[in-house]
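Q&A log
Question type: sequence-to-structure
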Amino acid sequence: MNNLFDKTKKILSASMAGMAVLPMVTACGNVQEQKGPMNVLFIMCDDHSYQTISAYDSTFIKTPNIDRIAADGVKFTNSFVANSISGPSRACMLTGKHSHANGFTDNSSSFDGSQQTFPKLLQQQGYETAVIGKWHLTSEPTGFNHWDVLIGQGDYYNPTFICNGEKVQREGYATNVTTDLALEWLENGRDASKPFCLLLHHKAPHRTWMPDTCDLELFADSNFPMPETFYDDYSTREAAKVQRMSISKDMDIVYDLKMADKDSTIHSRSDLEAWGRRMYNNMNPDQKRAWDAHYDVVIEKFKAAGLKGKELDAWKYQQYMRDYLRVITSVDRNVGRVLDYLEEEGLMDNTLIVYTSDQGFYMGEHGWFDKRWMYEESFRTPLLVRLPGSEVRGELKNMVQNIDYAPTFLELAGVEVPSDIHGCSFLPLLKGEEWKPNRDGVYYHYYEYPDEHAVKRHLGVRTETHKLIHFYEDNVWELFDLRADKHELNNIYGKPGTEEITAVLKEKLVNLQKQYNEEEFIAQ
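Response status: OK
Response body:
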């Protein structure tokens, strides 16, 4: 494999042309005549916020390789998930159905692998299918000619995979190893006479944001602006007051922020502290030496500073951001490796490339990390798509959802989209054609409560201008005017003058619940 990796290696600066944020313009044009079935490369990360992709926002980081996909294609600025948590979101993507219909409503579920998925339908069409990296659906993958997946959440260092049923521990950093495995399959593991569909799914940047050793010193001197909503008091949002995902109160000093000192004088929540030290102990001696050279210095400075109150909050935020962005740097570098390989092998002209995340993520907005909410930062996700031959470029503002991926891939492959799929193919948008989705707004439902983050069960509907959320177990409603209140600070439900828009949104919500056969949650 070393020859392959030498061949695919590029100097990072060669990709800098893709760094600029794309203009807000869409050019229409027809896709060139397709030469044989189109390959599908579906790259997905876990918890990658759109705020930390420079095609969307260059405030925090430059991601030149991820931006290459947008530069040669499109970026969706209104891309949403159906259920903002990892396993359920992945099930929605595989099936094109909302969580209640695919049976995987929360992370305590197990995915029913016997059901219809888009990889199975592509297999029937003659595609070679593979999933490599994070799976997180409990049951073994089905519908794949090849699968090589992390166990559960997976480890950042020296992770154990299950390769077609056999456990294999692999030395190295998870993002690099996952990319190595994907390139090896592309080069030597597939039947090159067939079109392929590769799901390349990274663990990164999932909690606890452990950087590769070569990236540990990145951003060491950077100070990132804290979001203006960091000290949100949630005065109009009752459910937000009881959550447990605060950087100030809930981000663990050992587990999340790596302050596992050698003399064990720093303590945190006992179960998380044990996990934090276990992850360190999973490293080999060389990895530990590099890790210690960086974090021992940070730990000693932290102990000497004796921070409290808002000073401690600011330190925790900066430490979180630095580690998170270091992990993103590794993701971007490895995306570049894959794009370089496709270019060198002449595969770019016949491969649809998609980059996304299983949900959005909080970078300190409202004082939070994590996801789960129907609020924008976790509900909205990055989606960058490159369709060979298309002249469509720039931003697409249409509201799409992760249930739309499956029908898009199927239509691209010439497979009839089954009538029970909830999503709607957005392939016409990629071709510059009119798009008529089969819904009026996007529907969301989060089921996992109680859990460690204490986010209440809720569902809702979003339109281009408004959002209505129902925390149905407490019968609490929230209404936001997204034009006037982009940070969703002011719940205007029940306020004078909102009667008409409330009635309209409730009708849309009921219609979507009926359309998706989830009528048992219709509010009485």
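Response note: The chain is about 30% helix and 15% strand.
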